[in-house]
Amino acid sequence: MSAADRAGGLDFSAKQVWVTGAGRGIGRAIAERFAEQGAQVLGLDLAFAEGPCSFACAQLDIGDAAAVQRAVQHWLVEGGQVDVLINAAGVLRLGLTEALSLDDWDQCLRVNASGPFYLLRELIPQFKARRSGAIVSVSSNAAHVPRMQMAAYAASKAALSSLTKSAGLELASYGVRCNLVSPGSTDTPMLRGMWQNADGAAQTIAGQPAQFKLGIPLGKLASAAEVADSVLFLASDLASHITLQDIVVDGGATLSC
């Protein structure tokens, strides 16, 4: 870690940070960035397929309430505390509302909204007891504006946003801050899986009028690292008086949201 990072308030030395969705994409970038800044990171996911991790890894289905309860109680005994919780796990199911299967709907709500609730339910008592900490949830700009074929995903991310702010209001008097980062189109396996051809990136940047989707004024996709930096800022001492806020990291794609 550089002296500039320490002086700038990004020193997470001796901090225990849990990151869900740490197996790939944005969650992986967040976990690696915290590890770079000295944090003791526990990355949680169903699988870790992107090679060796620079942080401790554990498999967990956050959509399984009983599994979350067992795992959290075990890890709290082993590790003693959690200073920062990052809710970054997410799944995407595309389809027009009437075409979505029940499984599509259930999976989006289960992972994107219920999973963070299960973790919060288990961890809030220790955050209250310690009277400090930070929680950052990775939502989406789809929670701010409607998107074609994203009813399940957008609804689940909107639920996550509201859940995080409600928890933040309840935790404010205990000195625990809860904030959101809402990315737009980010160069991850999830986004690439949506592209229909080699022009996917260019079409995303330009916008898709037929789907009522604006382009990206900055003229580029976000990188996972750019989203991770916003998460670290909100979890750091630089944001010590910021809570109940939602930073939209989408290059201006949602304009006035």
From TrEMBL:
<comment type="pathway">
    <text>Siderophore biosynthesis.</text>
</comment>
<keyword id="KW-0520">NAD</keyword>
<dbReference type="InterPro" id="IPR003560">
    <property type="entry name" value="DHB_DH"/>
</dbReference>
<dbReference type="GO" id="GO:0008667">
    <property type="term" value="F:2,3-dihydro-2,3-dihydroxybenzoate dehydrogenase activity"/>
</dbReference>
<protein>
    <recommendedName>
        <fullName>2,3-dihydro-2,3-dihydroxybenzoate dehydrogenase</fullName>
        <ecNumber>1.3.1.28</ecNumber>
    </recommendedName>
</protein>
<dbReference type="InterPro" id="IPR057326">
    <property type="entry name" value="KR_dom"/>
</dbReference>
<dbReference type="Pfam" id="PF13561">
    <property type="entry name" value="adh_short_C2"/>
</dbReference>
<dbReference type="InterPro" id="IPR020904">
    <property type="entry name" value="Sc_DH/Rdtase_CS"/>
</dbReference>
<keyword id="KW-0560">Oxidoreductase</keyword>
<dbReference type="InterPro" id="IPR002347">
    <property type="entry name" value="SDR_fam"/>
</dbReference>
<dbReference type="GO" id="GO:0019290">
    <property type="term" value="P:siderophore biosynthetic process"/>
</dbReference>
<dbReference type="InterPro" id="IPR036291">
    <property type="entry name" value="NAD(P)-bd_dom_sf"/>
</dbReference>
<comment type="similarity">
    <text>Belongs to the short-chain dehydrogenases/reductases (SDR) family.</text>
</comment>
<feature type="domain" description="Ketoreductase">
    <location>
        <begin position="15"/>
        <end position="177"/>
    </location>
</feature>
